[in-house]
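Same chain as my last thread, 255 residues:
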Amino acid sequence: MLGQNTNLKNNDIVKHFVQEGFKRRTLYNIIKRSEMGLPAEDLPRSGRPTSFKRKNLKRLQNAAINRIGVSQRKLGRKFGVAQSTIHYNLEKLGLKHYKRQKAPKYSENQVEQIPKKCRKMRRQMLASNTFIIVDDEQYFTFSNDDMPQNVGFYAFGKEDVPDNVKFKTKEKYPKKVLVWLALSAKGISTPYIGSTKGPAITADIYVNKCLSKLRSFIEEYHAGDEYIFWPDLASSHYANKTTRLGMHQNQPFWF
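reply #2:
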């Protein structure tokens, strides 16, 4: 019907095809090309041919997708093209670069315990208005070598650089500042801050320094509440000295 009507204006034609889902600018360009006697299809244009062959796109996708340590410069050397060509073709494929996220690494035993403890928590949480109390600790070293501005230095050559500048020394178990606290939906405990030397908090420090603050936190915020204390899987949280103290004081520890 549209093709048989020769009295239609350009505006009417555009309105019709816009309703069919075509872009308004594309339609006006086609009409203009038709008035100039040019075909509607865009003919191949002259110019520099691409240096990256179409058959290499699939190879590039397989070489880049879901792989760690792949850089555009390495891919450029592999395919014999510039880094900018790799960048352009990765965008053409729709591949984007993402930074890896940090996540805890669990042992096989910890992975087995997770669903059991989650089921136990679900049963108790659905039965009553129970609060979950958790605690955690963090360590801070006294050195500032890990700060981004301290990882490098300027020099005319490495030969005349002092050793304390050239080398970043590291102790196996450096002195660290330990910061511990407990928290729940109602608030945060008084933190414990102290020095420690070793890979992790010991049971003696945890029992003598941290659990007293935990008891004060429970008495202040959860005196009449149903609650579960759910520590993480650090060895000091489940040492014999720690568990005996929890059972003696009738604390609902999460095992």
